[in-house]
Amino acid sequence: MHQLKQYSVAETLEKDLGDPLDPNNIMSFKQVVDIDETEEFPHSQIEWLYNWKLQHYYVPAECGGEFTSFEEFVAFVRVLSRRDQTIGIAFTTLFWSFITWMSGSDEQKQKLANYIKNEQGTMCLGYSEREHGSDLVGGDLTAKKVSGGYILNGEKWPINRATISGISYILAKTAPEGGAKCLTLFMVNKRELDPEKYYNLPKILTHGIRASDMSGIGFKDCFVPDSMRLKNEGDGLEIALKGFQITRTLCAAFSLGAADTALRTTLNFASKRIVYGKTVFDLPQPRQTLVDAFLDLLICDCETIGSARGFHVVPEQFSVWASVVKYFVTTQLETMINNVYVVLGSRFYMREEHDWGIFQKVLRDNSIISMFDGSTVVNLHALILQLRPLTKYRSRRKSNTMAEIQGRLETIFSLEKPLPTFTPTELELFGRGIDDPLQGLEIALQQLEDLKQTSDLDEQVLENLLQLGNLVLEELDNHDQLIANSKFEYGHDQSPELFEIAKKYCNLHAAAACLHMWLYNRTILGDFFAKGEWLVLSLHRLLRTIRHLPYCLSEIYVENTAQELLKLYKEDKLFSIVPFQLAQSQSPEDKPYATSGLQLKA
Ligand SMILES: Cc1cc2nc3c(=O)[nH]c(=O)nc-3n(C[C@H](O)[C@H](O)[C@H](O)COP(=O)(O)OP(=O)(O)OC[C@H]3O[C@@H](n4cnc5c(N)ncnc54)[C@H](O)[C@@H]3O)c2cc1C
């Protein structure tokens, strides 16, 4: 496979963290499960990451750091999360710094960069309140203007790293009468506050990510200087919503890491456990479940990596794209983890026994990803509000629009192409109906047609792809028709049906992302990727949730995909369209999961 340099940070981090199956390693499954049992914050692991200087990759190059692309970022957050989402999430609250990179003054940026790089500084996001979760405008924490600053009063809860962090991004009400301009965002530096005027709330006991600093923060007549305000009074909601466009997309990396471990640890079992004289992996139904899980990862990869690159090319489209990724990837992989636990059998529920009980921890930890940073319904709702403009824009595309979309799609999806620097100032609250991946679907179909002239592709694969691709187009046309004829309202009282329609839009979006990813990278991501059988199976998998299709398109494609999955597993490579090298396992003596005696009793 061609070496893509944007994956080298992740590969090096992987190597240095070592095999997670070796209990002596800093973030081994044994260590992270032990930490989870104590529920104590993982200080040593976080310090290890700071000493490795990973924090530099959270600071953009123009602010003196090493961050250059979201694609690179997603890859190394995935590496952290495949070992432990608790640590991955705890360290990655650093990413809230993007609020400052996006909206801070030069002085604020400089101060923050220094704090992160040289003082092991970190931050938390204080948006939610006990009485007002998703309803940011309904918040009660107030900031009253006084000479030289503001007086804060109120509490934020539940907040990850509220206690163990130096900076809190606090969304406060500056206009009691409400409205879109009633909020102001502060980058509150605790070290510069009167310690008598703020307090931390007790640790919250959670179902998963138990070792997190899950707490809250409160202010009582607390003075914060004007220098801690981001942009202008009243700009808080706009900054918050634009910041979410960045972080919601990146949440996908947490899910991808967890899903890799869920699948890998299940394979570890299924390839060794003997039932009825053969391995679990050799039974048709579990084999299909594991192949489907692998396909889910590949599909989510196309959507996530596409969006991570898309940020650099079309930031103005992310009011749509971020909602699609946050909804689709996190829920698809949550379901995938639930599907594979059936194959792992009873061990999925045990807090020891198989790979130190990492699966049950993954299951618990991962279930928060689709909830925080805007829950599933909040993201679908945000998408619903844009469905009509999306449909209108699509119906008005002209040939020059298509040519522009094609140019952008190529930069977004060609992994070898350099990306422009991310410009957060170009994020928009509403994307004016533009959504390149789906609006460029006809371009992909034409590219498939053109491939008929080349000889390197299996004719049947191409035929399948054309058929399935045209079904995606048919479904998209139906969708547009439905939206055009529907009663559409702004606000929160959206019909349950519209939520289902929005889900379907996300599904079609993922199908388009898979097509583009394959078309632009056919020759650089290895033979398995190039052959396209996985793409046939993936499109079929996505379409099957929308319309009636035969259960199986090709047993040969399934078998070849199963073989690829086993190969990646044996070679310790990431389950991904970019299967980079993971830390090599020392291949401990393969432990059988049953003796024949036990089998007879079962
Ligand atoms: C472990 C954990 C970590 C967290 N970390 C942070 C953090 O660091 N910073 C932070 O600010 N917050 C954080 N949160 C808070 C989290 O973002 C909120 O819990 C989330 O926004 C949902 O809020 P809520 O549960 O209060 O639900 P509510 O807003 O009270 O909503 C209740 C229910 O109403 C329905 N609903 C809400 N909106 C809509 C809609 N538009 N359309 C249809 N139905 C809707 C849904 O069913 C929803 O579950 C964290 C939460 C947890 C559990």
From TrEMBL:
Molecular-function GO term, any one: acyl-CoA dehydrogenase activity
Transmembrane regions listed in the UniProt entry: none
Q: Which InterPro entries match?
A: Acyl-CoA_Oxase/DH_mid-dom, Acyl-CoA_Oxase/DH_mid-dom_sf, AcylCo_DH-like_C, AcylCo_DH/oxidase_C, AcylCoA_DH/ox_N_sf, AcylCoA_DH/oxidase_NM_dom_sf
Q: Which cofactor does it need?
A: FAD
Pfam families (alphabetical): Acyl-CoA_dh_1, Acyl-CoA_dh_M
Domain (Acyl-CoA oxidase/dehydrogenase middle) spans 124-222
The answer to whether the entry has keyword Zinc is: no
Domain Acyl-CoA dehydrogenase/oxidase C-terminal as annotated: residue spans: 234-380
Q: Which GO terms describe its cellular component?
A: plasma membrane
Keywords attached to this entry? FAD, Flavoprotein, Oxidoreductase
Q: Name the family.
A: Belongs to the acyl-CoA dehydrogenase family.
What is the protein name stated in its UniProt record?
Acyl-CoA dehydrogenase
Source species: Aphanothece sacrum FPU1
Q: What lineage does UniProt assign to this protein's organism?
A: Bacteria, Bacillati, Cyanobacteriota, Cyanophyceae, Oscillatoriophycideae
